[in-house]
Write a structure and sequence with these properties.
About 25% of the residues lie in helices and about 30% in strands. It is an alpha+beta fold. Residues about 5-20 and about 135-140 have low confidence and may be disordered.
């Protein structure tokens, strides 16, 4: 019995740590998510490619709206190939609101705030406020 316990305990020390770690995200408001992102856009995932050598996934988006970052008809974003390491599982043909950081290329994940466009009502309400023209002050109007 002691041998079994010793063998079992030693196996836990040999297993890779990454197997025991799961993705964990803190809740954030749309304001916090927007402020911490370098790029915020809405678009349709038109091509998804597994980059095996990097254990990442590359997603090409047909962009419909940009709130922050580079304006382009197509943007390329990478994410981890595993949800355990916070990779986002995109589906080809679906539309998303993407929050991305740049390191050196656009990157997103489960904790970035990225979500299907159909589930982004609160985010879109905040983003639309950011696009409203600022009112001129009375001093500037004189």
């Amino acid at each position: 019995m002691k041998k079994i316990l010793v063998i079992t305990a030693s196996l836990f020390g040999v297993l890779p740590v990454s197997l025991a770690i799961a993705c964990s995200c803190l809740p954030r408001t749309p304001e916090q998510t927007f402020a911490s992102s370098q790029s915020v856009f809405a678009g349709q995932a038109i091509e998804i490619t597994q980059l095996r050598q990097e254990e990442k996934v590359r997603v090409i988006f047909k962009v419909s709206r940009v709130w922050k970052g580079r304006r382009s008809p197509r943007l390329v974003v990478t994410t981890s190939g595993s949800s355990a390491s916070c990779g986002y599982s995109f589906e080809q043909g679906k539309e998303y609101l993407v929050y991305a950081s740049a390191e050196p290329r656009l990157t997103t994940g489960l904790c970035s705030g990225t979500k299907p466009l159909s589930m982004a009502q609160a985010d879109l309400a905040y983003l639309e406020q950011q696009q409203q023209p600022r009112r001129r002050t009375a001093a500037k109007e004189r």
